[in-house]
Structure prediction request, 227 residues.
Amino acid sequence: DIVMTQSPDSLAVSLGERATINCKSSQSVLYSSDNKNYLAWYQQKPGQPPKLLIYWASTRESGVPDRFSGSGSGTDFTLTIGSLQAEDVAVYYCQQFYRAPFSFGPGTKVEIK
Amino acid sequence: EVQLVESGGALVQPGGSLRLSCAGSGFTITRNYMNWVRQTPGKGLEWVSVIYNGGNTDYADSVRGRFTISRDTSNNTLYLQMSSLRAEDTGVYYCARGAAHRSWGQGTLVTVSS
Prediction:
């Protein structure tokens, strides 16, 4: 099974500043036949279901603000919030959908400093 | 508009059984990977099971042999039959559409306790 890890566990960032979250998979999630990384990022606010932000490691879901961006390939990935807004306070999860079980990372809590 | 509505969550004793339902609208479940994901109290997300558009299924090790995912095309509904329930199965169960889970229901609460 593919194990997902995230760092840091939590971070506090000032409004307007950049937030960076790292995700690492225990095996590559890059599928050679289509050259796509089967990696997604989700945002979850209290009392709500998760919301898909990014898929294929770097493709923004429709309607997601462009301050959210994803990068990385193979086993190492990053979610960047370019200019943190108050509404971005949430827990962020990465997930691999390369091979079942489609494991999630443990989450990173983002707060305002 | 795509919508997913879960139901069936309840308080059940250890060793008991429960069936969750997820009614889909605005899309056809057989054309999508359909997943169950759970979230234990105060914890993160745990992927539970998938039924692929072709009908094959996969499970997390923690539920394999106890849970069964299925779908009913006539009413566009996804199911999760859960048996031999344990305290650690307690949580909010979400259904989610897609390999990358682009649509989620609001969840249904399962509590396993005596």
Summary: The two ends of chain B are 40 Å apart (CA to CA). Chain B touches chain A through 20 residues (CB under 8 Å). The longest strand of chain B covers residues 18-25.
